Predict the 3D structure of the following.
Amino acid sequence: MKIMSSIVLVDNPLIWKNLLPLTFAKSVSHLRIGILTIIEKWEKYGFSEITVHSQDYINQYFNQNINLQNEHIFISSNYLPDKFTVTQIQHLENRQSLHTETGELVAFRGNWVDFENQKFENQQIISTKPSSINYLWDLYLQNGSEIIKDFKIVTADRQSKEIEDKNVIIYNAENVHIEEGAKLKACMLNAENGPIYIGKNAEIKMGALIEGPFALCENARVNMGAKIRPNCTVGPNSVVGGELNNSILQANSNKGHEGYLGNSVLGEWVNLGADTNNSNLKNNFSDVKLWSYTQNEFVNSHQKFCGVFMGDHSKAGINTMFNTGTVVGFGANVFGGDFQAKYIPNFSWGKTDEKYNFEKFIEAETLWMKTKKASLTEEYKKLIFKILN
């Protein structure tokens, strides 16, 4: 087997834009699906030197010093690794590429100039196409299967922590893994139809009902009486309550109160006020149309079930009602009676054309991030300012 080079996870500009508003402040490879982010998935397969390459302002923020003229393995960041694909990539020779049968580039070994100009001397075709994220709805559609994949990798040859509370009820205990420091009290876990992963120092409070596949990441919490349906991920330092179905909270986000969130993805540093609800199915059962930043109009998702997608640092006031297939941009403050608009631009303020004052936004987010023991750095403020402009 050829000795491994460092890998560069490269954003296809079109796919990066398709995944807005979730990618305004990050690469596609920073997105969480299953238990892990895409970068973390590649790390689990033995790649230790990983760089991301995205939009210029994102590259500047992450300040990664790498000589792209050296030999690297460039991998399209929207592909999710599996054992077969990793093996194919490991066998690539210099200036050799790996494509799907439909011509999509998966990986290339060589330098940046050849990669950019697609100077591929020997194109290999991968017989089994790896899973990939191309549109917003792909995240929740594939979340359950990715939890199952990640669970096998993360828990391999490891023992689950014993549950101390005898009032915790578990179905199919061998499909539940609990990390050190996790606390569970008088809750019910049903892992008959998929694994349940409880991360380090996570907490599940009394009366919570959880059905797998489910991932509760490090320092995350499920509140009392929550109802968690299958295929959900609660990212690190996040809080959930009420009813959750086939949804992902990326990290550091709160849906702590009663209300329904289904077929949805919340970015980082998002907060939903009490009794916030979203519709995920139209009354006439037709396909859901969703705002596209790529086409600058609503497009057919070809999905019957489709909820809300909220960019990083957006907030919703109490009793907020989100329409089927709503897209909320970066840093929006959503409030007001009746249903919200199906597309809410970056830094929106309520139901007006007014924008969130930047200084007040920074002041509020500084306080919000402190609640989770994080800080808003000067570098990150500059990144946010570039998104604003």
Summary: The longest strand covers residues 105-110.
